[in-house]
Amino acid sequence: MKQRSLWVAALAMLGITSMASANFRQGDFELTLSGSGGNDKEFEAGSINANASLGYFLTDGFEIAIRQSVTYADGGEGQDTIINGSTRGAIDYNFEFGRWQPFIGMNLGYVYGDGVLDTWEAAPEVGLKVFVNDTTFIYGQVEYQFFFRDTDNADEAFDDGQFVYSLGIGFRF
Question: 50-54, long-range: CB within 8 Å, 24+ apart, which pairs?
Fold first, then answer.
């Protein structure tokens, strides 16, 4: 009987969320909140982040946003823990597929804190927003940040980059 009740509840949730269909429109705002983790390319050091973003839709698809991140990082064995931050501007294009909203874009900003050389960064990004009702969505995003440190070799700046993964909740208003 319990198993049957679980199936009924799961089908009801599927029915409710499949009815959610929200498309962004010019003039909409978006607030996102997320946590994320990142690592170097060797997976030897890591960090956790708290992120917030406020976006505005210039058109039905194009969005500009300001993002703030705070990072607590553990540099690995024998290293100090540190707190870093980043402030970034982003532009994304959101594709309309009913409740599924994939997006692609880029961001540019400044990274600062205890454990980083304060520097500009840029990142291509891709993600997916899944609406659970007309105003609320769950989203995931992946970006690769590369840094504009003082270097004569652009390959070094790209090689010293990091992947950043985000999973969060968003609100359209």
Answer: 51/166, 51/168, 53/90, 54/29, 54/30
Across the range 153-158, mean pLDDT stands at 57
Domain CATH number, residue 70: 2.40.160.20
Q: From the CB of residue 42, how many other CB atoms can be counted at a distance below 10 Å? A: 6
Q: How far apart are CA 47 and CA 109, in angstroms?
A: 19
Backbone angles phi and psi of 61, in degrees to 5: -115, -35
CA dist., res. 140 & res. 108, Å (int): 19
pLDDT tens digits for 1-43? 556 655 555 555 554 444 556 789 999 999 999 987 777 787 7
Domain count, the chain: 1
